[in-house]
């Protein structure tokens, strides 16, 4: 999964040559990004929908080609919460493409960082609505990454209550544990809205 600048802790000085940062805090360029994908990566990370559209039009290759850390363009725009960019990027893209950690774009949308321009619930809804069948939706909701986390685990960890509600309404598994034995209801801080929603959903499942 790509890393947002705000999620970075203190880095060693010699790592500065591996990435450039804009003043607004986004990771802009990484030395590992293939040259022909740099315009695409830049546009996806800063949310420039016009530049992204142009980069996709000029892309000589697959829209599902990994851009950074195994993430496709769709992974990146889902992570950063740029709904207009997602609307451009998902056309023809594989909704179930996995990055190097086994995460699909839905994981990124559910784990997204809270930004003033973020529209994560809308992005999650768009991804689910774009699935070509109920079976595809089920697979997306049940896909686990390298740590066994489903998209609901990611939303729970970020305490994104609106996203949690949407995932549960779509049939996300609420009692599925990750590799650490944690189900989604155990991840939010206690007495938060996210925690109450998940605990109620888990309780309802246990009573069935």
TrEMBL record:
<keyword id="KW-0677">Repeat</keyword>
<protein>
    <submittedName>
        <fullName>Uncharacterized protein</fullName>
    </submittedName>
</protein>
<dbReference type="GO" id="GO:0016567">
    <property type="term" value="P:protein ubiquitination"/>
</dbReference>
<dbReference type="InterPro" id="IPR036770">
    <property type="entry name" value="Ankyrin_rpt-contain_sf"/>
</dbReference>
<dbReference type="InterPro" id="IPR051573">
    <property type="entry name" value="Ankyrin-SOCS_box_domain"/>
</dbReference>
<feature type="repeat" description="ANK">
    <location>
        <begin position="147"/>
        <end position="179"/>
    </location>
</feature>
<dbReference type="GO" id="GO:0045732">
    <property type="term" value="P:positive regulation of protein catabolic process"/>
</dbReference>
<dbReference type="Pfam" id="PF12796">
    <property type="entry name" value="Ank_2"/>
</dbReference>
<dbReference type="InterPro" id="IPR002110">
    <property type="entry name" value="Ankyrin_rpt"/>
</dbReference>
<keyword id="KW-0040">ANK repeat</keyword>
<comment type="similarity">
    <text>Belongs to the ankyrin SOCS box (ASB) family.</text>
</comment>
């Amino acid at each position: 999964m790509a890393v947002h600048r705000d999620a970075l802790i203190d880095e060693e000085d010699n790592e500065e040559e591996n990435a450039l940062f804009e003043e607004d805090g986004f990771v802009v360029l990484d030395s590992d990004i293939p040259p022909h994908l740099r315009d695409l990566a830049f546009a996806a990370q800063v949310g420039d929908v016009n530049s992204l559209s142009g980069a996709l039009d000029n892309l000589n290759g697959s829209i599902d080609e990994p851009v950074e850390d195994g993430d496709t363009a769709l992974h990146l725009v889902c992570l950063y919460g740029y709904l207009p960019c997602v609307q451009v990027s998902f056309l023809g893209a594989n909704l179930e493409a996995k990055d190097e950690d086994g995460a699909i774009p839905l994981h990124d949308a559910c784990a997204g960082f809270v930004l003033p321009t973020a529209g994560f619930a809308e992005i999650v809804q768009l991804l689910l609505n774009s699935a070509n069948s109920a079976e595809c939706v089920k697979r997306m909701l049940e896909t686990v990454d390298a740590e066994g986390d489903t998209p609901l685990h990611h939303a729970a960890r970020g305490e994104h209550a609106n996203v949690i509600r949407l995932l549960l309404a779509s049939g996300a598994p609420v009692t599925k544990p990750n590799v650490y034995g944690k189900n989604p209801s155990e991840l939010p801080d206690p007495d938060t809205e996210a925690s109450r929603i998940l605990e109620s959903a888990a309780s309802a499942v246990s009573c069935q």
